[in-house]
Amino acid sequence: MEGKNLSLLHCLLLHGLILALVTKRATCQSNKKSYIVYMGNQRKDGSSTSSLHKSMLQDPFGSNFAMKSVLCSYKRSFNGFVVELTEEEAQKMAGMSGVVSVFPNEKRNLHTTRSWDFMGFSEQVERAALESDVIIGVLDTGIWPESESFNDKGLGPPPIKWKGICQTANNFTCNNKITGAQYYRSDGLFGSDDLISPRDSSGHGTHTASTAAGGLVNRANLFGLGYGTARGGAPSARIAVYKICWSGGCYDADILAAFDDAIADGVDIISLSVGWRIRRDYFNDSIAIGAFHAMKNGVLTVNSTGNQGPNRATITSFSPWSLSVAASTTDRKIFTKLKFGNNMIYKGVSINTFDLNNEMYPIIHGGNAPNTIGKFTWASSRFCLQNSLDHNLVKGKIVLCDMLGTGREPLLAGALGAVMQDQGAKDFAFSFPLPASYLDLVDGSKILIYINSTSNATATIFKSNEDNDTMAPYVASFSSRGPNPITPDILKPDLSAPGVDILAAWSLLSPVSQIKGDNRFVPFNIISGTSMSCPHVSASAAYIKSFHPTWSPAAIKSALMTTASPMSSGINLDAEFAYGSGHVNPIKAVNPGLIYDSEEVDYIKFLCGQGNGTRFVQLVTRDDTTCSEATNGTVWDLNYPSFALFTTASETVSRVFNRTVTNVGSPMSIYGANVTAPAGTLKIRVNPSVLPFTSHGQKLSFALTIEGTTDKSIVSASLEWDDGVHKVRSPIIVFVSIS
Ligand SMILES: *[C@@H]1O[C@H](CO)[C@@H](O)[C@H](O)[C@H]1NC(C)=O
Ligand SMILES: *[C@@H]1O[C@H](CO)[C@@H](O)[C@H](O)[C@H]1NC(C)=O
Ligand SMILES: *[C@@H]1O[C@H](CO)[C@@H](O)[C@H](O)[C@H]1NC(C)=O
Ligand SMILES: *[C@@H]1O[C@H](CO)[C@@H](O)[C@H](O)[C@H]1NC(C)=O
Ligand SMILES: *[C@@H]1O[C@H](CO)[C@@H](O)[C@H](O)[C@H]1NC(C)=O
Ligand SMILES: *[C@@H]1O[C@H](CO)[C@@H](O)[C@H](O)[C@H]1NC(C)=O
Ligand SMILES: *[C@@H]1O[C@H](CO)[C@@H](O)[C@H](O)[C@H]1NC(C)=O
Ligand SMILES: *[C@@H]1O[C@H](CO)[C@@H](O)[C@H](O)[C@H]1NC(C)=O
Ligand SMILES: *[C@@H]1O[C@H](CO)[C@@H](O)[C@H](O)[C@H]1NC(C)=O
Ligand SMILES: *[C@@H]1O[C@H](CO)[C@@H](O)[C@H](O)[C@H]1NC(C)=O
């Protein structure tokens, strides 16, 4: 770490420590500007610090001081107090003897994996005693075991059901948090950075594992960004590591082997943030097959939808027995301001931890700096393509690139910073290996005009700041969209969870931007992707499992889906194809009222009805199960917690969906159906519309009928079963085109 960043960190530590106390004492709050006067360690002589603090305000600096009163004193662990002061008074105070520092009492949000708080899932939520019996299997790039997030303080030995092993190659050690770790090695995939061990040299697996089940780490941050307490959603749960991915990729064989082991090892939830760019049908997908086995054995597989959005039908995770998670934003948005020699200031997007100290530097358009010796022209240097920039022309300057790139070429060419302009989305931030910010083409063209207008154009790039995005949550542009390309009548994705600018633990071998030449190695990093949303749901599933250890994967999934908070199609025009049932809400999901349960036989019926069933069923069951008329179910009758109907614009449909719900709330409860649908040519009926339960675990069936015609690309409606306590909500969609 660089010296100046270290001192910044130190300063933040101080703020955090004191403000943590401040928030506990209502009396410290004031409408006027107040300052914290920090006086170091607590005095050992036991003299009354309160009176000392008061006396300090009567010091010779002016009679005004005496009028002020101490808002609150710190006297248990250290010495200091809060007082209303003007800036001038604060400066005087700072010079007084015994005072270490005086700094403004600003509102800061002490929440890091901000995503959990944003989800309404606070650190203080009720936890089941059994949480430490839940084991989350993370299939990923391995883990960094020394991360503070995986400290096993306070955790007893793993539950007896755990049967896995720990491969200790390369100094890798397990503990009571990381109860097991294995790596799966496929020849030919290793790069020079790969470690033949469960140890993570990428950062990705460490990040996802800590989001799922990392313990609490105070004052986590990335050079001050995202400052607060980092925590996993199930901080007492255990992590079983299955390293299936290497720098060269992840092989099917290894993925299946990992599934095989994980199920036998006794994991409860499988969290899988990897996938293919191309979609494969159920018969041809190792993950779908592995996940089917997992389901058969009572293990829920949680999978990310993929990062190929925002176009429709880009989703690659769609098997009905797994839970597919889209990625949405939180209220914390990271941005990076830029200032130009003409005094124009623009708000770009990036995670920029570098500090140029507000100094202006020359800026040059990449197009004006082609590496002519390498025979590159304006046509490639304007995009800052590999080797295209002339080192002598960009050295010590900020270079403007007409494309969002990794920043590698400007860095290698010796540029001091980079400004990128492109037409892509700006709803999440990338890290670059040098000071950089990303602008849209509108701002970009203004900058081009400025650069052209003068011979000495200058610019500077500021350190990133955080904004409150009050529009959140909405699904990020990169998150893959439905509909389900193989079975359009099963709605996918299932739900959405935070996946944008997420701070979590990191591998010390992987630099912040993951670009060679970046020398920032950090214990916590901020990254985005559906990979980040997946462990939020894995943890939520673990949370439910800790309260309901006997619930099936489908029951847990149903609980998460029917209690998800509805999201808005205002920003996400693709509506349910972007967010499925909505934004995950683990607290509500613990007590869903009703569940839509399914077991292996139900999925086999579904598969048989899809044709090709026997082949697949035999593939997964590895016995001679065959499909018969009796086992031939329709897609509409799979007991799924959402409803989807693919039709054609001219067709008048009448489609019945049969469903059975299980009462997991109070024994005597009467649920009424409430269908909300836009006015139009579609009619949705529920029969019966009242479900009177008389016992716990009782199952009652109903049929939902969609009749009519539509020509809309998506019609969004919903069914809500309501007993006055629970609202069991399912989205209903009708649509006429896949893409
Ligand atoms: C393993 O630990 C030993 C002793 O602490 C150390 O010398 C060695 O460099 C470590 N190896 C790796 C790969 O970290
Ligand atoms: C998980 O997602 C990947 C791609 O994102 C996909 O290939 C795989 O089939 C998915 N698994 C399941 C069980 O849906
Ligand atoms: C299965 O995948 C292979 C290659 O990945 C492809 O050639 C084949 O057509 C696929 N089969 C089906 C049924 O999708
Ligand atoms: C350089 O730019 C500044 C404004 O940014 C301007 O005042 C100055 O005259 C310029 N110098 C030359 C040599 O163009
Ligand atoms: C900048 O100047 C070059 C020629 O010097 C011209 O080709 C280009 O169109 C100009 N760009 C803008 C945005 O004015
Ligand atoms: C953003 O604003 C909302 C509403 O004012 C508030 O509840 C929330 O805590 C804020 N979030 C952050 C990160 O400051
Ligand atoms: C099974 O799937 C293959 C590839 O998708 C297809 O060519 C074949 O017709 C299917 N068979 C049946 C019986 O549906
Ligand atoms: C099951 O349904 C599928 C699709 O509707 C059909 O192709 C198949 O012949 C049926 N099989 C049996 C045994 O009824
Ligand atoms: C679905 O529900 C309808 C209407 O209640 C019923 O007639 C039909 O038999 C049901 N189908 C199945 C497969 O249960
Ligand atoms: C039905 O749902 C709508 C929209 O969510 C709500 O306004 C209404 O109060 C609900 N009605 C009943 C009877 O629950």
Automatic annotation (TrEMBL):
Q: Which family does it belong to?
A: Belongs to the peptidase S8 family.
Q: What is this protein called?
A: Cucumisin-like
Gene name as annotated: LOC111294343
Q: What PANTHER family does this protein map onto?
A: PROPROTEIN CONVERTASE SUBTILISIN/KEXIN
GO biological process assignments: proteolysis
Q: Per UniProt, which keywords does this protein have?
A: Glycoprotein, Hydrolase, Protease, Serine protease, Signal
Where does the secretion signal sit in this chain?
Answer: 1-28
Subtilisin-like protease fibronectin type-III domain location, by residue?
Answer: 637-734
Domain Peptidase S8/S53 intervals: 132-580
Give me the segments passing through the membrane: none
What sequence ranges are listed for the domain Inhibitor I9? 34-111
Matching CDD domains: PA_subtilisin_like, Peptidases_S8_3
Question: Would you say which domain of life the source belongs to?
Answer: Eukaryota
| Record: active site | D140, H204, S531
Which InterPro entries has this protein been placed in?
Peptidase_S8/S53_dom, Peptidase_S8/S53_dom_sf, Peptidase_S8_Ser-AS, Peptidase_S8_subtilisin-rel, Peptidases_S8_3, S8pro/Inhibitor_I9, S8pro/Inhibitor_I9_sf, SBT
Answer whether the UniProt record assigns the keyword Protease to this protein. yes
The GO terms describing molecular function are: serine-type endopeptidase activity
Question: Does this UniProt record's set of keywords contain Glycoprotein?
Answer: yes
